[in-house]
Structure formats: C-alpha cells, structure tokens
Amino acid sequence: xxxxxxxxxxxxxxxxxxxxxxxxxxxxILHSQVKSGVxxxxxxxxxxxxxxxxxxxxxxxxxxxxxxWGDILKRRSEENGVxxxxxxxxxxxxxxxxxxxxxxxxxxxxxxxxxxxxxxxGRRPRNDFSEDDEGAGPPEGQPEMEIRDMRPGPINGIxxxxxxxxxxxxxxxxxxxxxxxxxxxTDTNSGAPGALFMRSKTxxxxxxxxxxxxxxxxxxxxxxISALFWMPLVRSITGSVLRVTKAxxxxxxxxxxxxVDTKRDDEIGRLSDAINRMSERxxxxxxxxxxxxxxxxxxLCAPIARMQMALGILEQRADAKQKPxxxxxxxxxxxxxVLVNELLSFSKAGLRPKALKLKAIDVNALIQKIVSxxxxxxxxxxxxxxxxxxxxxxxxxxxRAIGNIVRNAIRYASQSGPIxxxxxxxxxxxxxxxxxxxPGVPDDNITKLFDPFYRVxxxxxxxxxxxxxxxxxxKTCIEACGGTVSARNRKSGGLRVIIRLQPAExxxxxxxx
Length: 513
Fold this sequence. Notes:
Elements (H helix, E strand, L loop, with lengths): L6 H29 L7 H20 L3 H15 L2 E6 L6 E2 L6 H6 L54 E7 L4 E10 L8 E9 L11 H41 L14 H51 L5 H28 L8 E4 H12 L6 E4 L5 E4 L1 H19 L5 E8 L2 E7 L34 H11 L3 E6 L5 E7 L1 E2 L9
Parallel strand pairs: 7-9
Antiparallel strand pairs: 1-2, 1-5, 3-4, 4-5, 6-8, 8-13, 9-10, 10-12, 11-12
C-alpha cells in the first residue's frame, strides 16, 4: 500500500520548515555580525553586564600595586569563568594569564589618547599621556597663556570608560570584549591609558557576553503563538478534507447515501456540496437500476415458468431423435431461470428498507446452519468460532451472504485443501473470515470481485458456473447489516474473504435456529 502523507502533517511540516529557515537566516545574520566585528551588536549586553564587572575590576586594580595586578586578574578569571588581561600604553607585556594579544586585537587597540583627552583647538599641544612637559612656557614671542589639563578626572576613584568593543579571533577561536579607560595603582600618581580584556571560548561566556535565555524564550513564544494561530486553521481545513475524503471513499465503495457536512463557504464547502449532489444522483440512478432489474426479473418469472411447463409437455411427446434438442433447450432455460433468480435476489437485497431492524445473532449457530446446508460429503471444513460470539444483523441476509462465499470456496478450491471459517473480535467489531487454498484471484482484479456481473473467468458454462452476481449480493447483504466485506489473496495461496460486522450481546436464553 502506498504511504500517504496527510495534509495536516504537510501544513505543519511547512510551518516548522518556515521557522527553521527563519532561524537559519537569523543565525547567518548573527554570525556575520560577529565575524565583521560589529560592536553595536553587543552594546546592550556589554553595558548591562560587562561594564559593571569591568568597573569593579578596575577599582580593585586601582587599590593595589602593579605587582599585585596579575593575581587579581587570575582570581577574577576563576570567579567569572572568563580570562582577564590588561594592557597599558607605553608598557611592555600584559597583565594577566594571556601570553600575547592576537594581531586582530592589537589592530583594534586605540591609537593615541582616548577621546576627550585632547587639548582644545588653539591651545598649546601637549602629551596627555605624560607629565614631562608640565610647567613648560609658551613659545618664544608668544604671550603667556593659561594651560588647562583637559584630561577628565576620575569619578568615585574610577576613570570613565571611553570605548568598548567585541572581537572574535580564530586559530584558536576566542571571543573578546574590551574596554578602554585609564588605570591607576598605589604606586602611580596619575592614570595611564590602556584596555581591559575579557576572553572566552564561547560566544555567551556563561551569559556574561550574551544571554541566550531571552532569545530562546522569545523564539519559543513566537512558535507557540504562531501554533495557536495556525492550529484552528489547520484543524478546520484538514477536518473538512478528511470528511470529504471519507465520503468519497464510501461512494467509491457503492454507499451512495452518505452526506458531507457543508458549513463552509470556501472551496472545500463547494466541494462538499458537489459531493452531496453527486451522491444523491448516483443513489437515484443505482436505486432506479435495481428496481428496474427487480421488476424485469419479476416479470420474466411468469413466462419462464410457462416455458418450463410447456417444455415438460414437449419432452413427454418427443421421440428419441428430438430428445437431445429438448435437453439443450431445458439447459438454456435453466440458465435463464438462474440468471433471473439472481437478478431478483440482487434487486431485493439492494432495495431493503433503510430502517432495517437488526438483532443479535449467534455467530456459531449461524455458521453451523450455513455449513449444514451448503457443505456436502468429501468437503473438509475447519471451524474456529468462539462460543457466545454475537453480531448485529438480519439472519436471512447473513445466511445468503456467507452461504454464497462458502459455495464459491467449495466450487473453486475444495480440492486444494480444507476450507477454513473463523471468527474473532477486533477493535473495529467482529470479523468472520472464510479462507481457502485455491488458486486465488489476480491482484489487479481483487477490487473488482464485488462488482455486478464481474467474473475472473469471462466464460459462462456449466464448469465455471454463475453469472457474476454472487459476490455482489454478498456485498449488498453485508452493507444492509451495517458491515463491510473485503477480499485478499493469502501469501501461502488461496483467497481470504473478511466480513466485518458490529458486535452484539446475546441474551441468556436466546437461541438461533
């Protein structure tokens, strides 16, 4: 059987595929921003998380000598899960456990004094990073001018942070966050410009550089809200399509009295209306056809009976030479009589009132009755029927239907092995299974077995027998009892016919004859 991918799953798959595509696009944008060194991407996180920590470290460094800076940075690294290091302009080496700054980091180091530390235009240039020229006079021939130190002073003992940046390096891969300010110590009287770095192997640095939680929460919220918006639409569409599909399958199986609920005003609603109209018209056609066949068969019964009576009189008066011709006529008339009777049975089964009163029938007693009537000597039958197993149905219809199946099995497969009749309770109801060991049916013809006038062997003679209405009558009778019938070939050879009926409960004193 070909596996079908439900529309419901297709829509949901497309929805989640859309989310994945958006996520991939967002990841590439995020990755490109990180790779390109866009500092503004993490400005909010740096301001909220990194900068307060950097101020704490800078303040602690300012209360210690430079000889103690390495220990302080090491301890801070262990406490925060990132590696701290510090570099000062004009001094060799690094403070901290980082042996050397990568070239990519060195290129990002500020050139010259930080912004805001330069003299105003018109003032005598001075080296903001050195006190060597303090007290130097104006150039010769110039009047004495007031020289002001434009360097911003510390606030609460800490110089302001002038620049922050985020950089990713490769081979090995690290993520760096740096801040630029002035650093003081107990053994220096003025602030020296430099940069404090925090290095991590991960992008988030345990939530210090970047916190995934808000992003995950936001993404989950988007998915959840989107699902809430999509779910009613998806359920509405797939539910309607499922009902229409089920109705179409029932019509394909010959059940023309189905109707689809049409409360929609879209394309699916139009399709439902079309299926309902088609079902009504097909029901009218088929019902009319069966009534026509029944009426025709009924009208043919009288002339056939008169012909049989006349043939009996003719047979008494025929001589030896005429006898073979009379026998041929009797045989053909008998075939016509069988055909008319089958047509009449088919018509009556299909024209049963819809409100057929079903009752509980003992399956064991029913099968015993059919076997005693249909099975003759030298035909082996294996029965496996549980006691007190009951189904809902109409006894005459079930006897006719199961009898036809058993009769076919005896005709085509009685010489190949025993005919097995079993019954069991399943989730869908009660199954009655008739199996044989005959030649079976070509797989392409299995679905046509219950069609009117269909025969696997197209020839019609005494050996093959029948007119192709036996299994059609079976299907009509079973459906009139609210059940279904199907057939399939056995893997070991032979045909298996499965009748599924509704279960029932037997009364304590009920018996079926």
